[in-house]
Specification:
Number of helices: 0
Order of helices and strands: EEEEEEEE
Strand content: 25-35%
Distance between the termini: 66 Å
């Protein structure tokens, strides 16, 4: 557990991140607030990054709107939207194919 400096505000808490990657390497971590009795809060996940200017894009899948059941090998197309606040990721779209068990090919005899 790492203790971090913080400042209280009206309805908010500003936390100062760890000073370097030796204290907290870049990773997704849980941030707990512990009261004077030692009782922790529910912890949100926070991303500790060595390059905070490069933020991950935010995306959403719009179609299909819910869960879809498909057979192995059947294609599924999807559509969505996304934003990249720092402009470092190109926009992409795609489709996928369901994974499934495949038989290994039989060895061929040399001619």
């Amino acid at each position: 557990m790492i203790s971090l400096a913080f400042a209280r505000g009206t309805g908010k808490l500003t936390v100062t991140g760890p000073p370097n990657a030796n204290i907290a390497p870049p990773a997704t971590n849980m941030l707990f607030i512990v009261d004077t009795n030692g009782v922790p809060s529910v912890a949100p996940f926070v991303q500790v990054s060595s390059n905070p200017g490069n933020q991950p894009p935010r995306g959403a899948i719009d179609s299909p709107a819910g869960d879809v059941t498909i057979s192995a090998g059947q294609p599924v197309s999807f559509a969505g939207s996304g934003t990249d606040t720092d402009g470092r990721s190109p926009a992409t779209a795609g489709s996928s194919r369901a994974a499934g068990r495949r038989r290994a090919p039989r060895p061929r005899r040399a001619a």
